[in-house]
């Protein structure tokens, strides 16, 4: 009898766990149905529902809306969700990566950029929009998989490559929207994933793609099942890995492009649906290929109906794709917390520095040389430009008139570049991760989230409020990333993947913030692209003061930067409180990032590239790297601001965009050469 007592409580949790997925699914299905009926009742009385949906009266506008807009939107949400669930399952199976999906792999961003370019320069081709989207998706997929091929398509490398390509495509898209806002204003909402429908054309197209994709998927079922094994076992069974992998990936890319061409970017459904299918007990691939699309359809259907309710309350149109990203980013963090395996990234270019030791005198000469070049760049940015008579140096009289506009921008860019470089150096030293930077890890995204919250909620806030909000956002992003990566003892790959999730959450919030269009959207887009257009002398002085103060605090942390990479036990043995030291360093990084983000926006990659260039020049110690990286970062942003201002005169390219165009290819090269 005593043995029977512990059996009952042991079996009861298993029963609850077995029923829980089904109960949650039924609850979600009931909520989707209830919300759908509620939105339909706002259009028509229930007595007319059946007649309006199947044979509407062409003289009744409400019945036409129900038949040609409401019902197609419901069907399209289900079809898009199912297609994305299928594509996500294929990506995750082939890449053996539970975090792979169209949005995190850059496929959706490439398709969207291709459609944006076609809208501007080849509108006649938009009739074949699905092929244009497919072409853009294929190009970005080739880039992402090409960058990570030498690493064996390792999950962390694929995720980082997808993030970089997504940010690169996104920054170009933002710049195009700034230049051609009147022509692309509709893309503000469409780019966030709008499911608004006017007829049944998208239903027909998406249904055919789902059927064709489903048939091809089950044709490839056996090869994809073998991808669950390691490569050696798969080859022993006679499978051509490269050919089958490329075929399956091409199928998933095509499915993703079909959704983007129809409704825009829908985020994280491809991540959530396969994960929920596994939680529901689908262990075999054949089961997941059926259940994941059903979950995807339910997720997007429920999300879209919820968005319609919130849109009425808030008075703004919220893109459904942005809303799914708001839900999906926390899910990605949850999946990340459940991952147990951690792999270390190579130690960057430190080996180069060790092979070629540099003396202190040589480093000093190089530092002086960089400072001289930076000073020359400042003079060039202030005095050399493009005017009515071509390129020329300004006369003394002309300089007195243009300096009031050029000087604040140049000095603010100088301060922002130095602060981003110092922040990136500190992050790489604290995490031991050569790919860490405020942009890649989502710290700049956190700072941007704080600023957007202030701008949207309180309008024209002062400098103090903006700095406080940006610093709070950056610190919150840092703490979230490190909290989710602490189970792996801050393994570099785990920190990077957490940053990917934070960055995706940032993109979703931005899409919601600019969805309503208008002046607020244009202002946010200018700032996100890294514009210094609106910098005043007060702003420049404020940025310089912060740069000097925060830069002066950095040498005080030199001992911690030497000791913390040695590990927890060694640091404590040397009398360093790791928790307190790490918190102070994180706070300093957050302040540096927040101040720089206010000037050049959240995307520039200076925080990544400047520390690497400093290391390539021979800086091995933390303080040496900071002293070399700061002027390199300042030089980069000053030149980027000058080029953006002068190259396309009278138009301007934002400094952050120019720096991204310079920095992102370097990161791609860095990823591509890793094994």
From TrEMBL:
Keywords from the named record: Cell membrane, Membrane, Transmembrane, Transmembrane helix, Transport
UniProt-listed InterPro entries: ABC_BtuC-like (IPR037294), ABC_transptr_permease_BtuC (IPR000522)
Family (UniProt): Belongs to the binding-protein-dependent transport system permease family. FecCD subfamily.
A Pfam short name: FecCD
Topological category with respect to the lipid bilayer: Multi-pass membrane protein
Organism from which the protein derives: Paraburkholderia metrosideri
Compartments reported by the entry: Cell membrane
Stretches that traverse the bilayer: 70-91, 103-122, 128-149, 156-180, 246-273, 285-302, 317-337, 367-391, 411-428, 440-459, 465-484, 496-515, 540-562, 583-605, 625-643, 655-672
Name by which UniProt lists this protein: Iron(3+)-hydroxamate import system permease protein FhuB
Gene3D superfamilies in the cross-refs: ABC transporter involved in vitamin B12 uptake, BtuC
């Amino acid at each position: 009898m005593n043995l029977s007592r512990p059996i009952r409580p042991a079996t009861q949790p298993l029963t609850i766990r077995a029923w829980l997925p089904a109960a949650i699914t039924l609850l979600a299905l009931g909520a989707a149905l209830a919300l759908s009926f509620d939105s339909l009742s706002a259009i028509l009385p229930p007595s007319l529902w059946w007649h309006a949906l199947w044979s509407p009266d062409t003289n009744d506008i409400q019945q036409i809306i129900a038949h040609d807009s409401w019902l197609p939107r419901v069907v399209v949400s289900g079809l898009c969700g199912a297609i994305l669930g299928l594509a996500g399952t294929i990506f995750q199976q082939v890449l053996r990566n539970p975090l792979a999906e169209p949005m995190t792999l850059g496929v959706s961003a490439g398709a969207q950029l291709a459609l944006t370019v076609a809208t501007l320069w080849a509108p006649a081709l938009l009739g074949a929009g699905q092929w244009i989207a497919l072409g853009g998706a294929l190009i970005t997929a080739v880039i992402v998989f090409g960058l990570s091929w030498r690493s064996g398509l390792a999950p962390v490398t694929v995720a980082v490559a997808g993030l970089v390509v997504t940010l690169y495509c996104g920054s170009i898209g933002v710049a195009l929207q700034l230049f051609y806002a009147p022509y692309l204003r509709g893309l503000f909402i469409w780019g966030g994933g709008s499911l608004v429908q006017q007829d049944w054309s998208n239903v027909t197209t998406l249904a055919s793609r789902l059927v064709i994709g489903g048939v091809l998927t089950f044709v490839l079922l056996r090869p994809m099942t073998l991808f669950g094994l390691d490569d050696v076992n798969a080859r022993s069974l006679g499978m051509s890995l490269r050919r089958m992998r490329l075929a399956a990936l091409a199928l998933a890319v095509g499915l993703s492009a079909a959704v983007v061409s129809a409704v825009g970017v829908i985020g994280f459904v491809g991540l959530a649906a396969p994960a929920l299918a596994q939680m529901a007990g689908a262990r075999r691939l054949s089961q997941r290929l059926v259940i994941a699309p059903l979950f995807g359809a339910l997720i997007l259907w429920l999300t879209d109906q919820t968005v319609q309710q919130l849109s009425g309350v808030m008075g703004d149109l919220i893109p459904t794709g942005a809303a799914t990203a708001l839900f999906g980013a926390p899910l990605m963090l949850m999946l990340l917390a459940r991952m147990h395996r951690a792999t270390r990234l190579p130690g960057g270019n430190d080996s180069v520095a060790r092979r070629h030791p540099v003396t202190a005198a040589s480093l000093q000469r190089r530092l002086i040389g960089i400072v001289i070049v930076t000073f020359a760049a400042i003079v060039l940015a202030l005095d050399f430009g493009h005017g009515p008579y071509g390129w020329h140096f300004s006369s003394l009289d002309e300089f007195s008139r243009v300096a009031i506009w050029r000087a604040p921008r140049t000095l603010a860019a100088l301060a922002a570049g130095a602060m981003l470089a110092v922040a990136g150096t500190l992050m790489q030293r604290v995490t031991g991760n050569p790919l860490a930077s405020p942009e890649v890890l989502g710290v700049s995204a956190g700072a941007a989230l704080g600023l957007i919250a202030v701008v949207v909620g309180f309008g024209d806030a002062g400098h103090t409020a903006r700095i406080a909000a940006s610093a709070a956002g950056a610190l919150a992003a840092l703490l979230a990333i490190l909290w989710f990566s602490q189970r792996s003892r801050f393994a570099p790959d785990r920190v990077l993947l957490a940053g990917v999730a934070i960055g995706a959450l940032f993109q979703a919030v931005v899409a919601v913030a600019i969805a309503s269009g208008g002046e607020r959207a244009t202002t946010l887009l200018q700032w996100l692209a890294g514009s210094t257009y609106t910098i005043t002398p007060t702003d420049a002085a404020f940025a310089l003061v912060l740069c000097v103060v925060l830069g002066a605090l950095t040498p005080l942390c030199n001992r911690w930067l030497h000791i913390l990479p040695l590990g927890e036990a060694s640091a404590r043995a040397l009398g360093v409180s790791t928790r307190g030291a790490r918190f102070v360093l994180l706070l300093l990084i957050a302040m540096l990032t927040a101040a720089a983000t206010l000037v050049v926006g959240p995307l520039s990659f200076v925080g990544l590239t400047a520390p690497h260039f400093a290391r390539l020049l021979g800086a091995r110690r933390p303080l040496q790297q900071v002293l070399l990286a700061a002027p390199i970062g300042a030089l980069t942003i000053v030149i980027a601001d000058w080029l953006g201002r002068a190259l396309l005169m009278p138009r301007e390219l934002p400094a952050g965009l120019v720096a991204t165009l310079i920095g992102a290819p370097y990161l791609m090269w860095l990823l591509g050469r890793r094994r």
